[in-house]
Amino acid sequence: MSAIDVLSEIIAQGSKARAASYRFRHGYNALLEGGYLRETGVVQAICCQECDDPHDAQIVFEGGQYGFYCSDLGFVPLSRGQASAVTPDISCLVAALADSFVTKRRKTSPLHGETWRIGAVETAGGNVSIYFHPRLDGEQDLGDLRSALAGEVKSPFRLVLTASGGLKFEDATAARLADVVEVDCETGTLTTTVDPGTIVGAPARRAGGRPNQFGEALAGIIRSRIESGTALQGRNEEAKAILEVLRLAAPNSTPSLSLIRSYLTNIRSG
């Protein structure tokens, strides 16, 4: 699991997460150092696994110590580290996304509720306006997104990035963060792994060179693996698996990993 997967999982919770559950996950420290996460305060509740019947319990501060009550064990003390919370810094994430995409028309505060405008990028077919909404898991999320975008100037293409879910939205293309960007665990820098224009299907700028000879084969393999249920959930992992399939078939003629990732993102986003 990558650092961006860890960040997405924490964002998707919609509230404070227990830091102790993530401290040893890959990329967690890089996310803290990059400013995408902050350890602050304590969580409100914890799952008690000390007794034979695991249950949720409220965190309390009693006798100068954090802890919770269990009907079998009574008061169970916790260290501050065991009770501390971690929260995502969405403003930091949006700023990093804007830098990575090199956008114009940035906005440094939410449009409405939890919806942010990252900015816009130019393509041969017109601007792609890029937004962020934490989750696209249910109708409430779609309703909140509609309300936020109602006052926005309509652009030829709209892309909504989200940490969780992928419900279809009538006025935009949705894509998961983990399929579009990644965090360098050495530097904490966020980098783009696929062009926004590719995701939304905008016309590509014409350039010299040979045409893409892998497009049809790639699309066929990707769709076949999705339909057969063999596709891996993580975009990077699935791209590597597809590359291995192609190498076995034609070891001297294979596409780049970045090209496979681009096709994966485009097909998965519909």
Textual characterization of the structure:
This protein is of the alpha+beta class. It folds into 3 domains: 3-88, no CATH class; 90-200, no CATH class; 215-268, no CATH class. It has 9 helices and 16 strands. The protein has helices at residues 3-12, 28-34, 80-83, 90-101, 139-149, 196-200, 215-228, 235-249, 257-268; strands spanning 17-18, 37-42, 45-48, 55-58, 60-62, 65-70, 74-78, 84-88, 116-123, 126-132, 135-136, 157-162, 164-165, 173-176, 181-183, 190-192. The strands form 6 sheets. It has a 4-stranded mixed beta sheet. Strands 1-8-2 form a 3-stranded antiparallel beta sheet. Strands 5-6-7 form a 3-stranded antiparallel beta sheet. Strand 9 (116-123) and strand 10 form a beta hairpin. Helix 7 packs across helix 9 and helix 8 crosses helix 9 (257-268). The protein is globular, with a radius of gyration of 21 Å. It starts with a helix and ends with a helix.
Would you summarize the structure shown here?
The protein is an alpha+beta fold and 270 residues long. It is built from nine helices and 16 strands.
Q: Determine the structural class based on helices, strands and strand pairing.
A: alpha+beta
* Rg calculated over all Cα atoms: 21 Å
Tell me the number of helical segments per DSSP (H or I, 4 or more residues long): 9
Low-confidence stretches: none
**Which whole number gives the mean pLDDT?**
83
How many β-strand stretches?
16
In this structure, how is the largest beta sheet organized?
Answer: 4 strands, mixed
The N- and C-terminal alpha carbons lie at a distance of 24 Å
